[in-house]
Amino acid sequence: MVMAQAGPVPFVVKDCALLTIATGKRAQNLKELREQLVSIHLGCVYYHFWGGLLHPRFEAREYNNDFATWANRSIHDKTLAERLSVVDPTAFGSLGDLRQEVIEVIEERLDEREVLAWAQPDQQFEFIRSQIVVFQTGQQLILPEDLASRISQLSLGSLFYHFIDARGRNDSRKDDFSSWLASFGEAYAVMTELLGSVEPYFTSLSELRNELADRFQECLCEVTCE
Amino acid sequence: MSSLLDTYAQVVGRDVIEQLYQVADSLSGLRVVHVNSTRLGGGVAEILEKLVPLTRELGIDTRWEVISGTPEFYRCTKSFHDALQGVAVSVDPGLLRVFEDTNAVNAEQLGPILRDADVVFIHDPQPAPLLKLFPDRKGRWIWRCHIDIHRPYRPVWRYLRDFISLYDASIFSLPSFAQPLPHVQYIIPPSIDPLAQKNVDLPDHEIVAALERFAIDRDRPIVLQVSRFDRFKDPVGVIHGYRLAKTFVPALQLVLAGGSATDDPDGEVVLAEVRQLAEGDPDLHVLHLPPDAHRTINALQRAADVVVQKSLREGFGLTVTEAMWKGKPVIGGDTGGIRLQVVDYHTGFLVSTPEGAALRMRYLLRDRAKRSEMGQKARDFVRDNFLITRHLRDYLTLILGLTHGAEDRIELS
């Protein structure tokens, strides 16, 4: 019996909006940050690692999460900021594991320091969580070429959902575009590889969109020229 | 036929409007009501004036109701307003009775509309007791606080909290304004309306005419601060900064433009002090403008080379947003919501002293290309974050969020 070979399915483009929710919980020094982290809603861990990327900014992000940024800017602990900044959120199986890693780094620093640095009252760490609302756009991409030609028109919400949020959402910890391109086999392996090398943490979403559009064009040129 | 949303699409882009339609699609059939205490004047009315028709155009049945009261009622709510911003005011128990009775009268008039609504937004403290008067309410009720409440005067907040804690959710403009409350607290920053008289593009002749009216020389550098004459806005510090900068930029002119201060005794004192400081300096213009001088303010903001908002304390600072929308770099006080908008070396500079303000004035005034580059970034930043269309999307998303309970992730099919 000959089985029908299923080809790659179209890529369904979704969009999202992030609702920001204040928890009312704050920390003014490292000890308080640690204490709050232990019991804080896990949505806060998601928000402070990923959610900030949906927020606009001009400057290149110095650190890849809000905990590191606060350590540097508000309590002026550069050592801690650097250690927190190497925590890779995609390396953990769950938000609970990620939280535990952040706590470990903070505890290590608490052991080292004899004096607690305090943030100004208006520079406290504000624990924020988010609710993500995902909706259909009615758009589909049939071929990788469609992705290359249309990525510059995708909304920033779509880009966030498929390229950033996906890394926390998918078991593979990969973005949606890469997973979809992989279903086309070796033909687009270069494109998938290049996608994997795009660093999403240190740029704004609109700059990221431009970078992806440029890279896709380069890749397609390579694919079609071969 | 061109709709209101089409007009906004020309400003914010078609994709933003498409996104609004997509979110609104899941809300069709809902009845939404906004309640505040004034139809005219003030930031809340300004926002609702556009937000309500825009929501209707998206196919959602939306009403805007206004409660009314006696002068005593407004005296009481003005005290609340001051107290929530941290001023220690005691409110006479008689006034509190007027406050509650007025809400009861309004509740009778608004009865069926509020009882049957699916979502009710109550804006600010004036109508806050309404919820308690509808024990048989059907929908979700949300308290929207537009006030800087990060350090409220506790006795007044305790009184109001008894009403507010009963709501299904509340909305604050900044995370630091959130209070311990037994319900979910959403953060939605305010916005400006790009098509309002205050922000709409102006013909050049109107800008020239405004400058001529106040004897301001367009050919020389202009630094502007638009704000009430209030100590928290630090007009005296701005004058100090201007004088320091003027020794390096002799042609410099400073314009301090502010609204009426007749209902604020302290405002009159500050205005008098500012006028005294300005005496004898033909390049320092103190403009006391009526509250409806929107196009004049617009013209002044467009004519300015640099806009200053050197507040010592600021909730959000919509005058900063307005100036940025007009492509101006802003020198802002390093406080409150100004920090959200002014990004050093990108959209302007944050300063803590008159000396800092002077330094940044000199830096910006010597380099037209830098001003222009920062101004463009400022405008883009406002377009992406602080226009009314983003505000509307946040409200619609919030309704979706509330109707789906506490889930972190809501997937709409």
Structure characterization notes:
- The complex is a heterodimer of chains A (226) and B (413).
- With 226 residues, chain A is α+β, with helices and mostly antiparallel strands.
- Helix content of chain A is 48%, strand content 15%.
- Chain A has a two-stranded antiparallel sheet with strand order 1-2.
- Chain B is built from 15 helices and 13 strands.
- In chain B, helix 4 (71-84) crosses helix 5 (93-116) and helix 7 (204-213) packs across helix 10 (294-303).
- Chain B is an alpha/beta fold and 413 residues long.
- In chain B, the strands form two sheets. Chain B has a six-stranded parallel sheet with strand order 2-1-3-4-5-6, with helices on both faces. Chain B has a six-stranded parallel sheet with strand order 9-8-7-10-11-12, with helices on both faces.
- Helix content of chain B is 46%, strand content 15%.
- Classes of the chains: A alpha+beta (226), B alpha/beta (413).
- Chain A binds chain B through residues 15, 17, 19-24, 43, 46, 56-59, 122, 124, 126, 128-138, 153, 155, 157, 206, and chain B through 15, 18-19, 22-23, 25-26, 172, 175-181, 184-188, 335-336, 343, 346-347, 377, 381, 384-385, 393-394, 397-398, 400-401, 407-413.
- Strand 2 of chain A pairs parallel with strand 13 of chain B, so a sheet runs across the interface.
TL;DR of this structure?
The complex is a heterodimer of chains A (about 230) and B (about 425). Chain A has about 230 residues and is an alpha+beta fold.
User: Low-confidence spans of chain A: pLDDT under 50, at least 5 residues?
Assistant: none
- The oligomerization state is heterodimer
- Beta content of chain A: 15-25%
Based on DSSP secondary structure assignment, what is the total number of beta strands of chain A?
2
Number of contiguous helices of chain A: 10
Largest interface between protein chains, with number of residues from each side: A-B, 32 and 42 residues
Spatial order of strands in the largest sheet of chain A: 1-2
Roughly how much helix do the residues of chain A carry, as a percent range? Answer: 40-55%
Second CATH tier, the architecture of the largest domain in chain B: 3-Layer(aba) Sandwich
What do we call the CATH topology of the largest domain in chain B? Rossmann fold
Q: Cα-atom Rg of chain A, whole angstroms?
A: 20 Å
Question: What's the rounded overall pLDDT mean of chain B?
Answer: 92
Low-pLDDT residue spans of chain B: none
Separation of termini of chain A? 36 Å
- What is the number of domains of chain A? 2
Main sheet record of chain B: 6 strands, parallel
Assign the structural class of chain B, choosing from mainly alpha, mainly beta, alpha/beta, alpha+beta, or little secondary structure: alpha/beta
Number of strands of chain B: 13
Tally of alpha and pi helices of chain B: 15
Distance N to C terminus of chain B: 31 Å
How much helix is in the residues of chain B?
A: 40-55%
